[in-house]
Design a protein that fits this description.
It contains five helices and two strands, in the order αββαααα. The protein is mainly alpha-helical. The longest helix has 18 residues, at 40-57. The N and C termini lie far apart (40 Å). 57% of the residues lie in helices and 6% in strands. The radius of gyration is 14 Å and the shape is globular. 32% of the residues are buried.
Length: 134
């Protein structure tokens, strides 16, 4: 079995230092410990690191928290397959850079064999990305 290396320190930072927005059992990690913003790419990057660490640790808390975080951003995916950068009025833009981070993060879950229920939403996001950014 491979070592989780510095991932343990990153796991502790995500789980203990970042603020969380809660929404009916789903959570969104803040961008930094100093803010409360619900930024989807930051949330999903944290969630994807946690789900990849789960295979090394077997820690159910890591897995459950990762799934709650993923659920938040999936709940906020727009009908056309996109995500706003963040959920504040002044941060409701969509760009290729952050959308790409979102999709890559979701792909990690799918590659680890988790959250197949989001496969169609992921595919819709990929279609949006392809149609709008190429």
């Amino acid at each position: 079995m491979k070592s989780a290396g510095n991932g343990v320190a990153n796991k502790d930072f995500i789980l203990n230092d970042l603020n969380r927005n809660e929404d009916h059992g789903a959570i969104c990690f803040s961008y930094t410990p100093l803010d409360q913003l619900a930024v989807h790419n930051a949330n999903l990057l944290g969630a994807s690191l946690l789900i990849r660490l789960y295979k090394y640790t077997g820690d159910e808390n890591i897995k459950n928290t990762a799934h709650q975080s993923l659920a938040y951003s999936m709940k906020h995916q727009r009908e056309d397959g996109s995500w706003y950068y963040a959920e504040t009025e002044m941060q409701k833009w969509i760009d290729s850079f952050h959308t790409g981070f979102n999709l890559q993060s979701i792909l990690y879950f799918l590659e680890e064999g988790f959250t197949g229920e989001y496969r169609k939403a992921f595919d819709k996001g990929v279609e949006f990305y392809s149609d709008h950014f190429f």
